[in-house]
Design a protein that fits this description.
The chain has 12 helices and 15 strands. The chain has helices at residues 6-9, 68-72, 78-85, 125-132, 135-146, 158-168, 186-194, 240-255, 268-276, 293-301, 306-310, 313-345; strands at residues 15-23, 26-35, 38-47, 50-55, 61-64, 94-98, 112-121, 150-154, 173-174, 177-178, 200-207, 210-219, 224-231, 259-264, 280-290.
């Protein structure tokens, strides 16, 4: 299994490209943000030392800088923020924010919907191993140990970066879509893996001298967050994922960190992996606060999460499968083309 948290890389390297206005303690500007490795320009506002990115072409929705930031901080004084956003020179229709675990009881009067977070409550390693995970997961951890997989903490080193590149470059398609880490050069990978070095660590799995998996674990004030978790397809029989997750739990138990989160609760194979390894579905309120008439109308007709979220789940599943088949077809076609060109130039 290969799990990748796209949320980690959205807004990993923001860059302010110029303030455009200041009005009533609201600064409007344009922000360059990496979205799946591609730099994109967003409207943004700075309100009381917090940055809110504006997304949506029809309904402009302000939210804490999408990615790690919304997992690492809370909106300070939402009522005051709403009043200031109404005076923003940039078009804003909705404010979206949510409560971070363990605060699952709604604290504010605004309209909210439940957001399902995947988290492991951490007390001791023994309790997790004996009480929280499935027998299948326990057997996989033991299996990993019997294979001789070495799991340990690591800082960012050149050796680790080279190993990570080997995992990134297994295939240009992952989980049915283009894998945006594929083909990156050494300086780029080292720079990206070094982000948040003061508040993160890597859990790595080696078989002999080969890196066969890694987790990037980011520490916040309330929990540790898995931002990347990937393995090598050729070594999945050695269950490196399970061994690395066990080490992550051990690290958090030793440091007194009460939760490990792997962002939102997943469906299908990923959801099964989460449940088997002790993740629990924790519901937290996600608020949607109208800032304009358009925002109120969007909330009234159910478009506050965008057109994609308004689609029925069977349609979404069908579209995802269609996307997977399309990229699989393109990959096979490219491989066949390379094979044909190779045959044409080969001496015979």
């Amino acid at each position: 299994m290969s799990l990748h948290n796209d949320c980690n890389s959205i807004a990993e390297a923001p860059h302010r490209v110029g303030a455009t206005a200041m009005r009533h303690e609201v600064v409007a500007f344009r922000e360059t943000v990496l979205v799946k490795g591609v730099p994109k320009l967003f409207n943004a506002v700075r309100v009381r030392e917090q940055t809110f990115m504006i997304s949506g072409s029809i309904v402009g929705t302000a939210a804490l800088q999408t990615g790690k930031e919304e997992w690492l901080e809370d909106v300070q004084n939402p009522e005051e923020v709403v009043q200031l956003l109404k005076k923003s020179p940039t078009k804003i229709d909705l404010l979206r924010f949510w409560q971070r675990i363990p605060e699952s009881k709604p604290k504010f009067k605004y309209y909210y919907e439940w957001r399902d977070i995947a988290a492991i409550p951490v007390s001791t390693y023994k309790h997790w191993f004996t009480k929280q995970i499935s027998p299948k997961a326990r057997n996989k951890i033991r299996k990993s140990e019997k294979y001789g997989v070495r799991v340990q903490e690591s800082a960012v080193t050149d050796q680790l970066v080279e190993g990570i590149m080997g995992i990134f470059n297994q295939s240009p398609v992952r989980r049915g879509k283009p894998f945006w880490h594929y083909g990156k050069d050494f300086p780029t990978v080292k720079q990206e893996m070094s982000l948040d070095a003061s508040r993160s660590t890597f859990v790595v799995a080696y078989f002999q001298d080969e890196l066969i998996g890694f987790i990037k674990l980011l520490f916040s004030d309330r929990y540790a967050m898995i931002t990347l978790i990937l393995d090598k397809t050729a070594h999945r029989d050695k269950a490196p994922m399970n061994g690395m997750l066990a080490k992550a739990v051990e690290i958090c138990a030793d440091r007194g960190i009460p939760y490990i989160t792997y962002t939102v609760w997943r469906r299908g194979e990923h959801g099964q992996f989460q449940e088997s390894n002790g993740f629990e579905k924790i519901r937290v309120p996600e608020y949607f606060v109208p800032v304009s008439l358009v925002g109120r109308l969007a909330l009234a007709v159910g478009l506050h999460k965008g057109l994609k979220e308004a689609l029925p789940e069977p349609v979404v599943v069908w579209l995802l499968e269609l996307r997977r088949r399309w990229y699989a077809f393109k990959l096979e076609k490219a491989a066949a083309s390379r094979s044909t060109r190779s045959a044409e130039v080969s001496p015979g």
